[in-house]
């Protein structure tokens, strides 16, 4: 990803769902932030515990804690970007910071990095997400052609976590299903198997999920439905029990 780091300030915070907090962050340094990056990711750099200022030198002796987040929206006029943080599910540096974040708090943004999915030429797509990757789906839905047959399935543990996506109403072949379950290892996998069993064309699969779930679905698609590796774009957005630094999560 681009190594450019921009200082920023929290402009506003909104609890949009029980497990999602939306932060709008702004900076005059966003004046050259590219406008077409919805669905791409940035690295959010946070202050060290007990500090207000953020270390922006990525090679510093004690670099800032940083985590990847997907862009929900970009406002090139007001020089802001919008990010959603998963809260009230797990503990960690970024989660704890976001839960307490308020207007005026300082952070920094590095990036944007490349989008995980960059092939928008296929006839059939199956896109699988949870709350950590829902904004990647939101961004891709703006770019997939209206003629593509698109199934989206997003699993959440609470029906109140279902949020509005920026779909294009004219794209009538784009279907979104929210699966409310606390057992995605069984219920989500069963749903995906049902989708794959009914496709005539081999879909391009995008998934952004917990690591072990990514492996399960990837193996299912390859071994039982002969989906080639070239048609699977996957990213483990998080790993159960492990934080982003590879340590046991609290």
UniProtKB/TrEMBL annotation:
This is Siderophore-interacting protein. It comes from Pseudoalteromonas arctica. SUPFAM superfamilies: Riboflavin synthase domain-like. Residues 3-119 form the FAD-binding FR-type domain. It comes from the Bacteria. Belongs to the SIP oxidoreductase family. GO terms for molecular function: oxidoreductase activity. Gene3D superfamilies: Nucleotide-binding domain of ferredoxin-NADP reductase (FNR) module, Translation factors.
């Amino acid at each position: 990803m681009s190594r450019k780091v921009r200082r920023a300030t929290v402009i506003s915070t909104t609890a949009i769902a029980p497990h999602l907090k939306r932060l709008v962050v702004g900076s005059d340094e966003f004046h050259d932030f590219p406008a077409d990056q919805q669905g791409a990711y940035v690295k959010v750099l946070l202050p060290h515990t007990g500090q207000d200022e953020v270390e922006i030198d990525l090679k510093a002796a004690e670099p800032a804690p940083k985590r990847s987040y997907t862009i929900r929206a970009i406002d090139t006029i007001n020089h802001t970007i919008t990010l959603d943080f998963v809260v009230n599910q797990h503990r960690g540096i970024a989660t704890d910071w976001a839960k307490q974040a308020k207007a005026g708090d300082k952070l920094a943004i590095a990036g944007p990095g490349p989008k995980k999915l960059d092939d928008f030429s296929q006839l059939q797509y199956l896109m699988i997400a949870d709350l950590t990757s829902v904004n990647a789906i939101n961004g891709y839905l703006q770019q997939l052609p209206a003629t593509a047959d698109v199934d989206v399935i997003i699993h959440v543990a609470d029906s109140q976590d279902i949020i509005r996506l920026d779909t294009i109403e004219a794209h009538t072949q784009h279907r979104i299903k929210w699966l409310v379950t606390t057992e995605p290892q069984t219920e989500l996998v069963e749903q995906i198997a049902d989708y794959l069993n009914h496709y005539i064309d081999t879909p391009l699969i995008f998934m952004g999920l917990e690591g072990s779930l990514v492996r399960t679905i990837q193996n299912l698609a390859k071994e039982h439905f002969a989906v080639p590796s070239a048609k699977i774009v996957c990213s483990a957005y998080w790993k159960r029990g492990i934080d982003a630094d590879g340590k046991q999560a609290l």
